[in-house]
Amino acid sequence: MNRFKDAEHLVRVAAVFLVGVTLFLCFRAWFVPKSFGEYGHYRGDSIAEVAALPIVHAGHETCEVCHQDVFELKKAGKHAGVNCEACHGPQAKHADDPGSVKPVLPDTAVLCARCHEANSAKPKWFPAVVTAEHSQGLPCNTCHTPHSPHIGDAPAAKEEKK
Amino acid sequence: MNMNRRFFITLTGAAAIAWEHVLAGAPEASPNYKMADHWWAMLIDVDKCIGCGNCVRACSVENNVPEGFFRTWIERYQVDDMHIEDPLVDSPQGGMHGFPQRAPGTGLTGNSVKEFFVPKLCNHCADSPCTQVCPVGATFTTPDGVVLVDEKYCLGCRYCVQACPYGCRFIHPEKNVAQKCTLCYHRITKGLTTACCEACPTGSRQLADLKNPKDPIHEFMKLHSVQVLKPQMATGAKAFYANLDGSVR
């Protein structure tokens, strides 16, 4: 094999190249997470990491397990479609430990006005009042039951407050 | 227990696999949730939005959103019929505390001015510009159609913040990573709706699963006109708006 007599320098270059490629593959295997590329050009495990974040709002299905009475009352009234945590705030902690974590009863003078304060940008079908004229700062549950808000239920409002 | 050799060897193999899982620190996946069975979207009826800010507050608490930043927000539009191309838009605190009635004489005035609220959030685009510009693969569309950020991989380079045509991304001031609406991925994978939909009192927002034939979105889309924001961008946006005015950007 006379032809390769003076090819030692080529072998050296090839060896260096081989070592380089091997090192690159080793580093790559070490640094790129296993799940990278599982679904696309990203770390597949990060989907599960986002899915594992803690839940803060329990969801009305959870509330209804214990508060069936409120659910029944609400079902018949105008607030049937308003979920519990829309007014009572996030209650996952209360749902996890109902004994020690007690929700704070909202102040209806503030709470109801968030939705029902008159505003020219609100859709015309939505019932709204200027609270300063309508109730002069009185809490709304003086006359209305929040869970079933028509006026006729006023005594029930007091019942519920207890 | 009847322990023979075959059973013992099977058990060791299973334990080895389980132990590898524990070592990898892989978080517990939602049981019975198959990504291939879902294609998530959101339906927003503009005519039902009353601008109460419940969705913004619920989102902030659910996702621990830093103060002054918003993963969802509400805009108030004022449109004059002579200048529909130039609406007046405001969103005080993202609409988090509602919208005070404008003082008389401020904003656009006149009998022909109309006003309405538009809730906004990430459109979870099927061909999202934000995921295409990420240089490190830290943001992506999941197989079930939700655009997420991998906070461990994000460099905070801000490319995606600039690429989003809807302004839905921000850089977390302390973590220095991009953040955005996850469509409450931690909730929807467990059968719950998103925090904003849970808190919306009028049903203006509806989480929708386009791959679920029983989802009411199919009936709604069949009977109503819906549109997406900036359709000319061809982003494959999946936040569908009903009763949307043409002046909304």
What report would you give on this structure?
The complex is a heterodimer of chains A (162) and B (249). With 162 residues, chain A is mostly helical. Chain A folds into two domains: 2-51; 60-142, no CATH class. Helix content of chain A is 48%, strand content 0%. Chain A has helices at 8-31, 45-51, 60-66, 68-76, 84-88, 92-96, 108-116, 131-134, 154-161. In chain A, helix 3 packs across helix 4 (68-76). Helix content of chain B is 23%, strand content 19%. Chain B has seven helices and eleven strands. Chain B has helices at 5-24, 54-63, 129-133, 159-163, 185-188, 195-199, 216-223; strands spanning 40-45, 72-80, 88-90, 113-121, 139-141, 147-149, 170-171, 178-179, 205-209, 226-227, 239-242. The longest helix of chain B is centred in the first third of the chain and has 20 residues, at 5-24. In chain B, the strands form four sheets. In chain B, strands 9-1-11-10 form a four-stranded mixed sheet, with helices on one face. A three-stranded antiparallel sheet of chain B has the order 3-2-4, with helices on one face. Chain B is α+β, with helices and mostly antiparallel strands. Chain B is globular. Classes of the chains: A mainly alpha (162), B alpha+beta (249). At the A-B interface, helix 2 and helix 5 of A face helix 2, strand 2, strand 4, strand 5 and helix 5 of B.
Topology:
The complex is a heterodimer of chains A (162) and B (249).
Chain A lengths: L7 H24 L13 H7 L8 H7 L1 H9 L7 H5 L3 H5 L11 H9 L14 H4 L19 H8 L1
Chain B lengths: L4 H20 L15 E6 L8 H10 L8 E9 L7 E3 L22 E9 L7 H5 L5 E3 L5 E3 L9 H5 L6 E2 L6 E2 L5 H4 L6 H5 L5 E5 L6 H8 L2 E2 L11 E4 L7
Parallel strand pairs in B: 1-11
Antiparallel strand pairs in B: 1-9, 2-3, 2-4, 5-6, 7-8, 10-11
